[in-house]
Amino acid sequence: MTDYFPGFGNHVSTEAVPGALPVGRNSPQRPAYGLYAEQLSGSAFTAPRHENKRSWLYRLRPTAEHPPFVRYQGAKNFAPGTVREPLAPNRLRWDPLPAPTAPTDLIDGMTTMLANRDPADLEGVAVHVYAANKDMTDRVFVDADGELLFIPQAGRLALLTELGRIDIAPGQIALVPRGVKFRALLPDGSATGYVAENHGALFRLPDLGPIGANGLANPRDFETPAAWFEDRDDATEIVQKSLGSLWTTTLDHSPLDVVAWHGNLAPWRYDLARFNTINSVSFDHPDPSIFTVLTSPSDVPGRANADFVIFPPRWMVAEDTFRPPWFHRNVMSEAMGLIHGAYDAKAEGFAPGGLSLHNLMAGHGPDLASWEAASNVELKPHKIAGTMAFMVETCWPYRPTAYALERAQPDYDAAWKGFPKAKLP
Ligand SMILES: O=C(O)Cc1cc(O)ccc1O
Ligand SMILES: [Fe+2]
Q1: Of 55, 99, 260, 294, which is the most exposed, with the fewest CB atoms less than 10 Å away?
Q2: Atom of ligand 1 nearest to the CA of 285
Q3: Which of 327, 328, 336 to mutate to test the pocket of ligand 1 (most atoms within 8 A of CB)?
Q4: Comparing C-alpha atoms, which of 64, 181, 201, 194 is closest to residue 129?
Q5: Residues within 5 A (CB) of ion ligand 2
Q6: Ligand nearest to the CA of 325
Q7: Angstrom distance (rounded) from CA 235 to CA 254
Q8: Active-site annotation, residues
Q9: Does the fold of domain 275-410 match that of domain 4-272?
Q10: What does the entry list as the binding residues for Fe cation (predicted)?
């Protein structure tokens, strides 16, 4: 049996039980085996064809059959809303979160650090970090507010979704579409990582322009799981994020009961090692857009609601060039994380599992030590190896949560202290 189908955004047909998938129609009068047909939309019905995303699910019971939701009382750090007081235009950075001491699954292990807009705007992005040490066994999570991009930092994740099972390890990413239920297992017993929650236009591959038909993240390297389901008539809690807050209800069965599905709205995984990195072979450090894996466009052409950008291993060969990221002020806002290794613009203080925020117009770039080293190094071909940093860049300035603001490193500004003054002739 196929475990995964290759390709980005393909139309997939898959059934875990032979004969479960209707042939030639979506909603037969009586689907096979008494299954329930259900359409899940990722775009408006009338979206242009190339942006139209939906899947048809054939399940043991309809999603519609559920008791009312009430407020979920756990996961106090997950989606608490951001600080509304005036936000100082300071650069912010965080150490990795402490490991949980009590048994904590992925839902309760989520901490929202940064967010912008309101999920109800259908625009914006939130950056969460997670630290968990317990499988989700008798409950599932579903996000009505957006798609979830998982970026593991330590420990594997098994995402058992309505549309199939996805296994990822650090260095791989996975996307769970808006509205798709899942539970997460931790094959290594614990896991930490990042989640970018995209409230806006669906993540897609960026246009390649003059790069041509191939390069960056190639469509064939994305993998969508085959249908998989569990037939469990045990109490199963659903925790749902909706309009910015968490809600709960309990079913008498697992909703991961989709026996067959077809369509082009589905979870996927991608190995960042497959990214075809393109860099300067002459001079100057290119704009980081050259490292875009996925983009969620806004309504303004070229101005992303969210870009997922990576800083992967690569050769640096540029001549007469300051090779690390330059000093800059950006009208876009930059949240950065580090999966492993060291980031070439920060000699100290940016640890794997950590996070930084350089909001719009914040002056930033290499710290003093990185600047000194790169200004004086002999410019031989040099391989940046053993590292993977990433950025969630957005046109909407981020606001931190109170939890994040209280825990920001107190001395981040010192990273840019002590630059010698230029000497004019
Ligand atoms: O600020 C950062 O470290 C991210 C970044 C990297 C880069 O190579 C160029 C610009 C940029 O914002
Ligand atoms: Fe930057």
Answers
A1: 99
A2: 8
A3: 328
A4: 194
A5: 334
A6: 1
A7: 7
A8: 285
A9: yes
A10: 382
Distance 391 CA to ligand 1 centre (A): 8
Q: How far apart are CA 415 and CA 368, in angstroms?
A: 6
DSSP conformational letter for 363: -
Q: How many CB atoms lie within 10 A of CB 154?
A: 18
Supply 221's token pair.
């390297």
Overall CATH class of domain 4-272: mainly beta
Greatest CA separation for the chain: 86
> What per-residue confidence (pLDDT) applies to 2?
60
**Residue extents of the structural domains in the chain:** 4-272, 275-410
Q: Mapped to the 3 state alphabet, what secondary structure does 292-348 carry?
A: EEEEEECCCCCCEEEEEEEECCEEECCCCCCCCCCCECCCCEEEEEEEECCCCCCCC
Q: Residue whose CA is closest, atom 1 of ligand 1?
A: 365
Please give the CATH architecture assigned to the domain spanning 275-410: Sandwich (2.60)
For the annotated binding site for homogentisate, the residues are 364
Judged by its nearest atom, the ligand closest to the C-alpha of residue 326 is 1
pLDDT tens-digit series, residues 352-382? 999 999 999 999 999 999 999 999 999 999 9
Length of the chain: 425
Ligand 1 binding pocket includes 366 (Cβ within 6 Å): no
Measured CA to CA, the distance from residue 258 to residue 36 in angstroms comes to: 9
- CA of 325 relative to ligand 1 center, distance in Å: 5
Residue entry with tokens 């196929």: 2
- Per-residue pLDDT, averaged over 289-298, amounts to 98
Dist. CA 111 → ligand 2 center (Å): 23
With beta carbons less than 8 A apart as the criterion, state whether 344 and 285 touch: no
User: Which residues is 400 bridged to in the sheet?
Assistant: 114
**pLDDT tens for each residue of 376-398:** 999 999 999 999 999 999 999 99
Residue 48: CA atoms inside 13 Å, Cβ hemisphere, count?
A: 2
Ligand 1 centroid–CA 132 distance in Å is: 30
In angstroms, the first-to-last Cα distance of the chain is 73
Cβ of residue 364 lying under 6 Å from some atom of ligand 1: yes
Q: Is the CB of 334 under 6 A from ligand 1?
A: yes
Both tokens assigned to 422:
């230029």
CB of 288 sitting under 6 A from ligand 1: yes
